[in-house]
């Protein structure tokens, strides 16, 4: 297992380029719920912007386990940890600014919240970690 702190220059580039990923959470029935997302890394944590009340939010509020996975060709990265829902306007604004840097400026959404995942297990392909 690796740490996000151990990302190589190539690893840091991989997590800053325009790649979509998946978010896996545990659904009400216990089945895994997987959706495509954009995410950012900051201060060692994963941030995902979404709408309050979405299935992602409801799943995290019921069971905080979450995994983000990104793949592009032979490179892959998986970040598993515990998630929380942040509704504080400053936290949402910070996450939106990070998202705009990596992807694009998101549309206005007064119901926007942030899913913040604290990594507990990080794995990835060779070359992403030093």
Automatic annotation (TrEMBL):
It holds the Pfam family PNPOx_N. Coiled coil: none annotated. The keyword Transcription does not apply. The keyword Oxidoreductase applies. It comes from the Bacteria. InterPro entries: F420-binding_dom_put, F420H2_bilvrd_red/Heme_oxyg, Pyridox_Oxase_N, Split_barrel_FMN-bd. Residues 12-122 form the Pyridoxamine 5'-phosphate oxidase N-terminal domain. Transmembrane segments: none annotated. Keywords: Oxidoreductase. This is F420-dependent biliverdin reductase. It comes from Microbacterium aoyamense.
């Amino acid at each position: 297992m690796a740490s996000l702190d151990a990302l190589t220059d190539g690893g840091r580039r991989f997590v800053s380029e325009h790649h979509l990923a998946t978010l896996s959470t545990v659904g009400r029935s216990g089945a895994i719920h997987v959706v495509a997302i954009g995410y950012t890394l900051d201060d060692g944590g994963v941030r995902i912007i979404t709408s309050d009340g979405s299935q992602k939010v409801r799943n995290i509020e019921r069971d905080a386990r979450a995994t983000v996975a990104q793949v592009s060709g032979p490179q892959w990265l998986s970040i598993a940890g515990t998630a929380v829902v942040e509704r504080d306007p400053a936290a949402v604004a910070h996450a939106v600014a990070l998202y705009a840097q990596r992807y694009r400026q998101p549309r206005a959404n007064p119901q926007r919240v942030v899913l913040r995942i604290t990594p507990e297990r990080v794995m990835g392909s060779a070359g992403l970690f030093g």
